[in-house]
Amino acid sequence: xxxxxxxxxxxxxxxxxxxxxxxxxxxxxxxxxxxxxxxxxxxxxxxxxxxxxxxxxxxxxxxxxxxxxxxxxxxxxxxxxxxxxxxxxxxxxxxxxxxxxxxxxxxxxxxxxxxxxxxxxxxxxxxxxxxxxxxxxxxxxxxxxxxxxxxxxxxxxxxxxxxxxxxxxxxxxxxxxxxxxxxxxxxxxxxxxxxxxxxxxxxxxx
Length: 206
Prior knowledge:
- A two-stranded antiparallel ribbon has the order 1-2.
- The protein is mostly helical.
- The mean pLDDT is 88.
- The chain is built from 9 helices and 2 strands; from the N terminus they run H-H-H-H-H-H-H-E-E-H-H.
- The chain has helices at 2-6, 17-36, 48-56, 61-64, 70-89, 98-101, 117-120, 178-183, 189-193; strands spanning 146-148, 158-160.
């Protein structure tokens, strides 16, 4: 565990186990501190900066804050975090990855009906990013579009949406932008390569 976190570059990539572990440790740090302070109903959040400040506090600060021994407190956080992760993702830590915990879970209105999800819901892709990084993503939310505009060259602007421009299950444009959106589309490939999203649902002839 120490080797995993020590060699981590801070990236929230889908293949990262370190990001998954670090997030679990931070949550347990907050939870155990608030529980010790008898904060039962917490309507707000402790900022990332305050969580980091608590983790970096010296050994003498923990007893003053009513948290007891720093070493004992932090060891308890680690054990609780690892136990939670093992319960969710199995005991084989080599198989843990942030992408499995951060799978996209988008539900089509008709896909919420039992038995119809496989038809209407988009695939539950493993995602990089997170709730506190530049690439905002979680199972429940993400960017509604990614738009890049250089005012010096507006004709080179790029835009990509999460799925496609059609909501029709049988349309080739329903999910044609999903691979680009999922990858972040840093080079604007969706704009350059996608064909015009034109289709005909019904055609009436006299």
